[in-house]
Specification:
The chain has a single domain, classed as ACT domain (Alpha-Beta Plaits). Helices cover about 25% and strands about 30% of the residues. The chain is built from two helices and four strands. Strands 2-3-1-4 form a four-stranded antiparallel beta sheet, covered by helices on one side. The radius of gyration is 15 Å and the shape is globular. The two termini are about 30 Å apart. InterPro entries: UPF0250_YbeD-like, YbeD-like_sf. Pfam families: DUF493.
Length: about 100
């Protein structure tokens, strides 16, 4: 019963794959950040709609938040995508 949540813990929602999956990626603000993110996304979610990407800089301009929807095929894909985005050294969060 290792997967049974403890008292007060919520069970994470179950995702049914494949599905459209929304990502919010936060990194250091830079002109090429969207390009860097797109290069990683193309490896893990080929064919994603790069024209639908939106981004916004933080109030002080230190960070850039990028939103994109990919076709998720499974948790292995999402884990590898997260790992490779973080490995760029420029991404702080992937939500």
């Amino acid at each position: 019963m290792a997967n049974t949540p403890k008292a007060g813990e919520k069970t994470p929602p179950k995702i049914e794959f494949p599905c459209d999956f929304s990502l919010k990626i936060v990194g250091n603000a830079a002109e090429d950040l969207v390009e860097v993110v797109c290069n990683v996304l193309e490896v893990h979610a080929p064919g994603f709609d790069a024209t639908a990407i939106t981004w916004q800089d933080s109030k002080n301009g230190n960070y850039r938040s990028i939103r994109v929807v990919i076709r998720a095929t499974g948790t292995d894909q999402l884990d590898a995508l997260h790992r490779d985005l973080k490995a760029t050294g420029r991404i702080h969060m992937v939500l």
